[in-house]
Amino acid sequence: MEEPDPLRSVLKILKDCKHVTFLTGAGISKESGIPTFRDKDGYWSKYDPMKLASPQGFLENPALVWEWYRHRLKIISSARPNQAHEAIKEMEKYFNITVITQNIDNLHIEAGSTCVLELHGNIFRSRCTQCDSKFDTSLLKEKIPRCPKCGGIIRPDVVWFGEMLNEDLLKRCYEVLTITDAIFVIGTSNQVYPAAGFPLLVKQHGGKIIEINLNNTPLSPIADVFLQGKATLWMKAILEKLKEWKNSMSLS
Ligand code: BV8
Ligand code: ZN
Q: Distance between CA 252 and CA 250 in Å, rounded?
Protein backbone atom coordinates (compact mmCIF):
# COMPACT_ATOMS: atom_id res chain seq x y z
CA MET A 1 0.00 0.00 0.00
CA GLU A 2 1.58 3.28 -1.09
CA GLU A 3 2.28 6.00 1.54
CA PRO A 4 -0.62 8.53 1.58
CA ASP A 5 0.42 11.88 0.07
CA PRO A 6 0.86 14.10 3.16
CA LEU A 7 -0.26 17.22 1.29
CA ARG A 8 -3.48 15.47 0.28
CA SER A 9 -4.06 14.54 3.94
CA VAL A 10 -3.55 18.20 4.96
CA LEU A 11 -6.01 19.43 2.29
CA LYS A 12 -8.55 16.81 3.35
CA ILE A 13 -8.38 18.20 6.90
CA LEU A 14 -8.47 21.87 5.82
CA LYS A 15 -11.57 21.35 3.64
CA ASP A 16 -13.71 21.05 6.79
CA CYS A 17 -12.00 23.84 8.75
CA LYS A 18 -13.19 27.30 9.74
CA HIS A 19 -10.80 28.15 12.61
CA VAL A 20 -7.13 27.28 12.04
CA THR A 21 -4.53 27.98 14.74
CA PHE A 22 -0.77 28.11 14.29
CA LEU A 23 1.48 27.31 17.28
CA THR A 24 5.01 28.34 16.33
CA GLY A 25 8.46 28.09 17.91
CA ALA A 26 12.01 29.14 17.13
CA GLY A 27 12.25 26.73 14.16
CA ILE A 28 9.90 28.86 12.04
CA SER A 29 12.36 31.78 12.30
CA LYS A 30 15.50 29.69 11.67
CA GLU A 31 15.27 30.39 7.92
CA SER A 32 15.17 34.11 8.74
CA GLY A 33 18.64 33.67 10.25
CA ILE A 34 17.62 33.52 13.93
CA PRO A 35 19.21 30.69 15.99
CA THR A 36 16.95 28.22 17.82
CA PHE A 37 17.41 27.00 21.40
CA ARG A 38 17.65 23.21 21.39
CA ASP A 39 19.14 22.43 18.00
CA LYS A 40 22.77 21.31 18.16
CA ASP A 41 23.87 24.84 17.16
CA GLY A 42 21.16 26.44 19.31
CA TYR A 43 21.49 28.83 22.25
CA TRP A 44 21.12 26.18 24.97
CA SER A 45 24.08 24.26 23.51
CA LYS A 46 26.30 27.23 24.47
CA TYR A 47 24.54 28.95 27.36
CA ASP A 48 22.76 27.89 30.55
CA PRO A 49 19.06 28.82 30.19
CA MET A 50 18.76 29.33 33.95
CA LYS A 51 21.50 31.99 33.81
CA LEU A 52 20.01 33.84 30.83
CA ALA A 53 16.27 33.15 30.79
CA SER A 54 15.23 33.08 34.46
CA PRO A 55 14.46 35.75 37.09
CA GLN A 56 17.21 34.35 39.34
CA GLY A 57 19.73 34.65 36.52
CA PHE A 58 18.70 38.27 35.93
CA LEU A 59 18.92 39.08 39.64
CA GLU A 60 22.40 37.55 39.85
CA ASN A 61 23.83 39.15 36.73
CA PRO A 62 21.57 41.65 34.93
CA ALA A 63 24.50 42.89 32.81
CA LEU A 64 25.10 39.39 31.38
CA VAL A 65 21.39 38.90 30.60
CA TRP A 66 21.21 42.30 28.96
CA GLU A 67 24.32 41.48 26.88
CA TRP A 68 22.60 38.30 25.63
CA TYR A 69 19.32 40.01 24.78
CA ARG A 70 21.14 42.86 23.00
CA HIS A 71 23.09 40.24 21.01
CA ARG A 72 19.77 38.59 20.04
CA LEU A 73 18.14 41.96 19.31
CA LYS A 74 20.92 42.73 16.82
CA ILE A 75 20.28 39.46 14.94
CA ILE A 76 16.47 39.82 15.13
CA SER A 77 16.52 43.49 13.99
CA SER A 78 18.17 42.47 10.70
CA ALA A 79 15.88 39.45 10.21
CA ARG A 80 12.84 39.53 7.93
CA PRO A 81 9.73 37.33 7.88
CA ASN A 82 10.31 34.25 5.66
CA GLN A 83 7.92 32.38 3.34
CA ALA A 84 6.48 30.41 6.24
CA HIS A 85 5.46 33.57 8.13
CA GLU A 86 4.10 35.01 4.86
CA ALA A 87 2.13 31.86 3.98
CA ILE A 88 0.43 31.96 7.40
CA LYS A 89 -0.58 35.57 6.72
CA GLU A 90 -1.95 34.60 3.28
CA MET A 91 -4.04 31.78 4.75
CA GLU A 92 -6.16 34.47 6.42
CA LYS A 93 -7.92 34.65 3.04
CA TYR A 94 -9.37 31.17 3.61
CA PHE A 95 -9.73 30.67 7.38
CA ASN A 96 -10.11 32.43 10.74
CA ILE A 97 -6.44 32.31 11.70
CA THR A 98 -4.91 32.73 15.15
CA VAL A 99 -1.13 32.64 15.60
CA ILE A 100 0.09 31.59 19.05
CA THR A 101 3.85 32.07 19.04
CA GLN A 102 6.53 31.25 21.59
CA ASN A 103 8.89 33.52 19.63
CA ILE A 104 9.80 37.02 20.78
CA ASP A 105 11.11 38.13 17.36
CA ASN A 106 8.00 40.03 16.15
CA LEU A 107 8.22 38.32 12.71
CA HIS A 108 4.56 37.18 12.58
CA ILE A 109 3.48 40.78 13.26
CA GLU A 110 5.92 42.07 10.64
CA ALA A 111 4.51 39.52 8.16
CA GLY A 112 1.10 41.13 8.71
CA SER A 113 -0.74 38.37 10.61
CA THR A 114 -3.70 40.12 12.25
CA CYS A 115 -4.17 37.93 15.34
CA VAL A 116 -0.86 37.12 17.06
CA LEU A 117 -0.71 35.95 20.68
CA GLU A 118 2.90 36.36 21.89
CA LEU A 119 3.08 33.80 24.72
CA HIS A 120 6.62 34.64 25.81
CA GLY A 121 6.60 38.40 25.11
CA ASN A 122 8.44 40.52 22.57
CA ILE A 123 12.16 41.45 22.52
CA PHE A 124 11.41 44.98 21.21
CA ARG A 125 9.53 45.77 24.43
CA SER A 126 11.14 46.25 27.86
CA ARG A 127 9.58 47.08 31.22
CA CYS A 128 10.57 48.59 34.57
CA THR A 129 10.80 45.94 37.32
CA GLN A 130 9.43 48.46 39.85
CA CYS A 131 6.70 50.56 38.18
CA ASP A 132 6.05 48.42 35.06
CA SER A 133 6.58 51.38 32.67
CA LYS A 134 7.21 50.16 29.12
CA PHE A 135 10.22 51.06 26.96
CA ASP A 136 11.46 50.45 23.39
CA THR A 137 14.39 48.08 23.92
CA SER A 138 16.37 49.51 20.97
CA LEU A 139 16.47 52.96 22.69
CA LEU A 140 17.97 51.63 25.95
CA LYS A 141 21.74 52.18 25.82
CA GLU A 142 23.01 51.73 29.44
CA LYS A 143 24.64 48.43 30.38
CA ILE A 144 21.88 47.91 32.98
CA PRO A 145 19.09 50.32 31.96
CA ARG A 146 17.37 52.28 34.76
CA CYS A 147 13.81 53.64 34.72
CA PRO A 148 13.76 57.46 34.32
CA LYS A 149 10.51 57.56 36.35
CA CYS A 150 11.41 55.54 39.47
CA GLY A 151 15.06 54.46 39.09
CA GLY A 152 14.07 50.77 38.97
CA ILE A 153 16.06 48.30 36.86
CA ILE A 154 14.52 47.76 33.40
CA ARG A 155 14.25 44.18 31.99
CA PRO A 156 13.25 42.67 28.64
CA ASP A 157 9.45 42.23 28.54
CA VAL A 158 9.68 38.47 27.98
CA VAL A 159 8.57 35.44 30.03
CA TRP A 160 11.42 33.55 31.70
CA PHE A 161 11.47 30.03 33.12
CA GLY A 162 9.46 29.80 36.32
CA GLU A 163 7.49 32.97 35.48
CA MET A 164 3.73 32.94 35.00
CA LEU A 165 2.42 33.80 31.57
CA ASN A 166 0.04 36.76 31.18
CA GLU A 167 -3.36 35.63 32.55
CA ASP A 168 -5.50 37.35 29.90
CA LEU A 169 -3.29 36.05 27.10
CA LEU A 170 -3.55 32.48 28.42
CA LYS A 171 -7.34 32.87 28.70
CA ARG A 172 -7.51 33.97 25.06
CA CYS A 173 -5.35 30.99 24.04
CA TYR A 174 -7.61 28.52 25.81
CA GLU A 175 -10.72 30.14 24.27
CA VAL A 176 -9.25 29.91 20.76
CA LEU A 177 -8.03 26.34 21.28
CA THR A 178 -11.55 25.17 22.17
CA ILE A 179 -12.89 26.36 18.78
CA THR A 180 -9.81 25.35 16.77
CA ASP A 181 -10.63 22.86 13.97
CA ALA A 182 -6.97 22.26 13.09
CA ILE A 183 -3.71 23.37 14.74
CA PHE A 184 -0.45 23.60 12.79
CA VAL A 185 2.50 23.11 15.19
CA ILE A 186 5.55 24.49 13.43
CA GLY A 187 9.22 24.62 14.48
CA THR A 188 8.88 23.83 18.16
CA SER A 189 10.48 21.01 20.17
CA ASN A 190 7.26 20.90 22.21
CA GLN A 191 9.15 20.81 25.52
CA VAL A 192 8.14 24.12 27.10
CA TYR A 193 4.84 24.38 28.96
CA PRO A 194 2.13 25.56 28.93
CA ALA A 195 2.54 25.91 25.11
CA ALA A 196 3.49 22.24 24.70
CA GLY A 197 0.14 21.25 26.18
CA PHE A 198 -1.93 23.27 23.68
CA PRO A 199 -2.12 20.78 20.76
CA LEU A 200 -3.57 18.11 23.08
CA LEU A 201 -6.41 20.46 24.03
CA VAL A 202 -7.31 20.73 20.34
CA LYS A 203 -7.22 16.96 19.89
CA GLN A 204 -9.39 16.46 22.98
CA HIS A 205 -12.34 18.22 21.35
CA GLY A 206 -11.87 16.52 18.00
CA GLY A 207 -9.58 19.03 16.29
CA LYS A 208 -6.69 17.87 14.10
CA ILE A 209 -2.93 18.29 14.65
CA ILE A 210 -0.59 18.98 11.73
CA GLU A 211 3.08 19.14 12.77
CA ILE A 212 5.89 20.60 10.64
CA ASN A 213 9.40 19.98 11.94
CA LEU A 214 12.83 18.87 10.71
CA ASN A 215 12.75 16.12 13.36
CA ASN A 216 10.29 14.08 15.39
CA THR A 217 9.21 15.65 18.69
CA PRO A 218 7.18 14.37 21.69
CA LEU A 219 4.08 15.57 19.82
CA SER A 220 4.75 13.64 16.59
CA PRO A 221 3.19 10.31 17.71
CA ILE A 222 -0.20 11.97 18.24
CA ALA A 223 -0.10 14.31 15.22
CA ASP A 224 -2.69 13.52 12.51
CA VAL A 225 -0.13 14.57 9.89
CA PHE A 226 3.64 14.93 10.41
CA LEU A 227 5.43 16.87 7.66
CA GLN A 228 9.15 16.36 8.04
CA GLY A 229 11.23 19.20 6.61
CA LYS A 230 11.62 22.96 6.48
CA ALA A 231 8.73 25.21 7.50
CA THR A 232 9.13 27.43 4.41
CA LEU A 233 8.97 24.53 1.93
CA TRP A 234 5.95 22.86 3.51
CA MET A 235 4.00 26.08 4.10
CA LYS A 236 4.62 27.21 0.51
CA ALA A 237 3.44 23.83 -0.82
CA ILE A 238 0.32 23.84 1.38
CA LEU A 239 -0.59 27.36 0.27
CA GLU A 240 -0.17 26.42 -3.40
CA LYS A 241 -2.45 23.38 -3.01
CA LEU A 242 -4.98 25.49 -1.12
CA LYS A 243 -5.08 28.10 -3.89
CA GLU A 244 -5.55 25.39 -6.57
CA TRP A 245 -8.37 23.84 -4.58
CA LYS A 246 -10.10 27.17 -3.90
CA ASN A 247 -9.84 28.11 -7.63
CA SER A 248 -11.30 24.75 -8.66
CA MET A 249 -14.15 25.35 -6.20
CA SER A 250 -14.90 28.80 -7.61
CA LEU A 251 -14.87 27.35 -11.17
CA SER A 252 -17.34 24.57 -10.25
C1 BV8 B 1 5.27 28.55 33.60
C2 BV8 B 1 12.30 33.37 27.20
C3 BV8 B 1 3.96 28.41 35.57
C4 BV8 B 1 11.92 34.15 26.02
C5 BV8 B 1 11.82 31.00 27.32
C6 BV8 B 1 8.62 20.35 34.80
C7 BV8 B 1 7.77 19.75 33.90
C8 BV8 B 1 6.98 20.51 33.04
C9 BV8 B 1 7.05 21.89 33.08
C10 BV8 B 1 7.91 22.48 33.97
C11 BV8 B 1 8.70 21.73 34.82
N12 BV8 B 1 9.45 22.60 35.56
C13 BV8 B 1 9.14 23.86 35.20
C14 BV8 B 1 8.22 23.80 34.24
C15 BV8 B 1 7.59 24.90 33.54
C16 BV8 B 1 8.56 25.44 32.48
C17 BV8 B 1 8.87 24.39 31.46
O18 BV8 B 1 8.05 24.06 30.63
N19 BV8 B 1 10.10 23.84 31.51
C20 BV8 B 1 10.44 22.79 30.57
C21 BV8 B 1 11.72 23.14 29.83
C22 BV8 B 1 10.52 21.49 31.33
N23 BV8 B 1 7.80 26.51 31.87
C24 BV8 B 1 7.83 27.73 32.43
O25 BV8 B 1 8.54 28.03 33.37
C26 BV8 B 1 6.86 28.72 31.81
N27 BV8 B 1 6.12 29.30 32.90
O28 BV8 B 1 5.07 27.38 33.36
O29 BV8 B 1 4.69 29.21 34.67
C30 BV8 B 1 4.98 27.71 36.42
C31 BV8 B 1 5.80 28.48 37.22
C32 BV8 B 1 6.74 27.83 38.04
C33 BV8 B 1 6.89 26.42 37.98
C34 BV8 B 1 6.07 25.66 37.13
C35 BV8 B 1 5.12 26.31 36.34
C36 BV8 B 1 7.62 29.81 31.09
C37 BV8 B 1 8.21 29.24 29.83
C38 BV8 B 1 8.85 30.38 29.03
C39 BV8 B 1 10.31 30.18 29.01
N40 BV8 B 1 10.92 31.24 28.20
N41 BV8 B 1 12.54 31.99 26.77
C42 BV8 B 1 13.12 34.19 25.10
O43 BV8 B 1 14.17 34.68 25.53
O44 BV8 B 1 12.97 33.72 23.95
S45 BV8 B 1 12.16 29.40 26.82
C46 BV8 B 1 12.50 29.22 25.18
O47 BV8 B 1 11.91 27.96 24.81
C48 BV8 B 1 11.86 30.21 24.24
O49 BV8 B 1 10.85 31.01 24.82
C50 BV8 B 1 11.19 29.32 23.20
O51 BV8 B 1 10.14 29.96 22.63
C52 BV8 B 1 10.78 28.18 24.02
C53 BV8 B 1 10.42 26.94 23.26
O54 BV8 B 1 11.52 26.56 22.43
P55 BV8 B 1 11.19 26.27 20.88
O56 BV8 B 1 10.54 27.48 20.33
O57 BV8 B 1 10.45 24.99 20.77
O58 BV8 B 1 12.63 26.16 20.25
P59 BV8 B 1 13.60 24.88 20.25
O60 BV8 B 1 14.95 25.36 19.90
O61 BV8 B 1 13.39 24.11 21.51
O62 BV8 B 1 13.05 23.95 19.06
C63 BV8 B 1 13.14 24.40 17.73
C64 BV8 B 1 12.47 23.33 16.88
O65 BV8 B 1 12.43 23.79 15.52
C66 BV8 B 1 13.20 22.01 16.86
O67 BV8 B 1 12.26 20.96 17.07
C68 BV8 B 1 13.81 21.92 15.44
O69 BV8 B 1 13.82 20.58 14.96
C70 BV8 B 1 12.83 22.73 14.66
N71 BV8 B 1 13.38 23.39 13.46
C72 BV8 B 1 14.61 23.95 13.30
N73 BV8 B 1 14.71 24.50 12.06
C74 BV8 B 1 13.52 24.29 11.44
C75 BV8 B 1 12.67 23.57 12.33
N76 BV8 B 1 11.43 23.19 11.99
C77 BV8 B 1 10.99 23.53 10.75
N78 BV8 B 1 11.73 24.22 9.84
C79 BV8 B 1 13.00 24.60 10.16
N80 BV8 B 1 13.74 25.26 9.25
ZN1 ZN C 1 9.99 52.51 36.95
A: 6
For the entire predicted model, the pTM comes to 0.96
The continuous run of DSSP H or E covering 100 comes out as strand 96-101
Q: Which of 45, 192, 226, 234 gets mutated to test ligand 1 (max ligand atoms within 8 A of its CB)?
A: 192
Segment holding 90, helix H or strand E:
helix 83-90
Closest CA to 54 of 115, 120, 101: 120
Q: Which residues line ligand 1 (CB under 6 A)?
A: 25-27, 30-31, 36-39, 42, 53, 102-104, 120, 158-165, 187-189, 191-194, 212-215, 217, 230-231
Express each pLDDT in 216-237 by its tens digit. 999 999 999 999 999 999 999 9
111-155 pLDDT per residue, tens: 999 999 999 999 999 999 999 999 999 999 999 999 999 999 999
Report in angstroms the alpha-carbon separations of 23 from 49, 177, 187, 207: 22, 10, 9, 14
Q: How far is the CA of 211 from the centre of ligand 2 (A)?
A: 42
The rounded Å distance from CA 245 to ligand 1 centre is 36
Domains of the chain: 1-34+81-120+165-252 (3.40.50.1220), 35-78+123-158 (3.30.1600.10)
CB 31 within 8 A of CB 231: yes
